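Throughout our pipeline, every protein is held as a single compact record rather than as scattered files. This encoding replaces a full spatial description with a residue-level series of whole-number codes. The remainder of this section carries one protein's record, kept here as part of the documentation.
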Amino acid sequence: MGLSQVAVLASAQTELRPAWRDAQHIDLISSVVTNVFKGTGLTIDDVDFVIDSGSDVLDGRSISNCGFLGALGAHHKEEARVEEDGLWGALYGVNKIRAGASIGLIVAYSKPSESSVDLYWSSMVEPFYQRPVGFGQKAALGIQAQRYLAAHGIKDEALAEVVARRWAAAAAGGKVAMGDAPDARTVLASEEAAAPLTDLMIARPVDGAVAVLIGNADVARRAGRPPVLITGMGTSMETHSFAERTANRLDSVSNATKMALGKAGWASAAAADVVETSGSSVVGELLALEGLGLAPAGKGLDAAQDAKVNRSGGALPADPIMATGLVRLAEAAKQLSTPVAGGAKAPAKAIVHGTGGVAMQTNCVFTLEV
């Protein structure tokens, strides 16, 4: 007997802001949980389980999700916490539906404006030799970028063009709070974060929440809209030691992609009409595109110029830590389900990528189809 089909039924997200000063975690969560049901004919009473993704470290207290159970709609329901990006929460939820549940609610949230993001990342590195000397996310991303640029002869200006493109896409989408979107010159002129990366070349932490409603194929058909099916999933992890990882490559993205494509029956990721990736830095995004098989080694810049890649803007202008991958899933599903005007060919397939850990240690890939 084959695995039951699982579909993305609906999604909702808050605006992604540098700081939600007039709203707490519980407000952001309750907002998306309320809005995700609109137009579906479903209510929270129809949900079999709730999975939330957040970080105790960023929230500043242990078992922080216990304070949000009411807002999550998890009262008297099965609830689980995934301390990783929400895309892993969706992976867990898909498997629960394949095991017999009908409807699941996946919620991811973050308020890094209330935390020290650098200390959050440093808490993940080796504590005796690396942490005391300041090794953390920025240092790792800088080393990663230095190696990549040196190996492939890529100039800083080319990276800045990609960053400007992503900010312009996010500005056009209207879901990310910002002033004027920076052009390439502004990207290059921003303060140094970790040479050769400037601040704007590293994903910008933002506050926000996202909810995704998933269900089995029977529920999706009753919803009266073409279902966006989750047809493949894969996940993999780099070694914890940054020094022992393969230079200029994210093997875990390749491994996760191979797993997802195999489940979906795709020959390659090039079959996707929509590509939504996460990247902790602009070089990280290029490495992710190469790991997905959309470009050979050192040619991620070519893939980054493709109009189907990160139409939402991706993670560079807006990285709601713990929710970024789930936002990519929501964005990809919307692009597949939104009618196309003017007789243009509607997109039918999408590939979604989420990441976590220092210098993108963990990676998750989904394939979607309508």
Notes: The chain has a mean pLDDT of 96. The longest helix spans residues 156-173. Residues 117-201 form one domain.
